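hey m, so remember when u said the tokens were messed up on ur end? i reran from scratch. heres the input so u can diff it against urs
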Amino acid sequence: MLLLIASGFSLQPLSTDLYLPSLPHLSRYFGVQAGAVQITLTLFVFGFGLAQLAVGPLSDRYGRRPVALGGYALYLAASLICALAPTLAVLSVGRVLQAVGCCSVIVAARALVRDRYDPARGAQLLARSSSLLSIAPLVGPIVGGYAEIWLGWRAAFVLLSLIAAWFGVYALRHWQESNPAPDPLALRPRRLLAAYREVARHPSFGAYALPAALTYSAIFVFIAGSSFAFIDVLGVPTERYGFYFAGAVVGYLGGTLLCRRALRYFSLPQILAGGSGLTAAGGLGLWLAVENDLASPGVLLAAQFTVMLAHGINQPCAQAGAIGPFQARAGAAAGLLGCVSMAVALSVGSLLGALHDGSLRPLAALVAMLGLSCFLAGQLPRLLVRRPPR
């Protein structure tokens, strides 16, 4: 179970982190501005977020296993399209298809956790799987950096194709259906709207979904902008960028380990309140450093480390808390949660591309704003959820 969840979840960071070192080179290869290349990231987020509205109910109707296996197959085909893309437009289409395949696997995995475990136990499993999946963003940018230097940007998507094939075969052999009573009416429009309305109106969903969206958006801004910041602004060589990014991901790994330990003693709202404070500290620290001309690779790394540390604490608790009340509609709840998270991330990612001016100021300002917003949203579960699970 743990390996199935971790491998499925790792598709998302691999889809972004493995080709991050190639982003500055893609702009030169296709002869476009940095903002145009960042569209390949924002389109991935757009496809991921929008698809979840359909994929969640699909898993309620046909089961988790067929949705996950179909997602792996689509992701493999889309990765090959990206690897062979002759233009930026074709690459962008491939990224959207990649996002739909990735989304199918992750939504099915989230629903699988809810099918098998209560919210508190599910948070523990998500934290353990997050510790494993942190290997992907640790290794991905390093491998991607050397692949870019030795073989060019297409190598990253060839690697993603091989990884999808490997994970898909593993899921085919070991994934057992966890939805014992598929809902034959789950895809009817009225039923869909009723399911999403029920989920959205539940106080626990809103209380946890907002901090989940903001903590993910904070790290997404770093994902979208850090390669340009390190390589183009601060002059870090491409092959070394992966080591800086991996250093930040160590923070994420540490956050998941802290979350696992904290779950023994504290409730989900208490942990989320503390983790969101770390998100604010990282964002404000970077903004103050940039405004006082103290920016350096070490300062940027420290800020990214702190925000990712906070994300490792926040995300397992926020996901488990948002989906926990909906055993019969876990797929719809997981889909709506992902859609909300991706919509917020898409907005800030597009804003970052529009504000890109060759300096660190847009990146620092957005992370600071998201950090403060996350801190405020992180207090909602303590205010709105009457009996939080321990």
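this time it looks ok to me. Residues 203-233 form the longest helix (31 residues). if urs says something different then somethings off w ur setup not the seq
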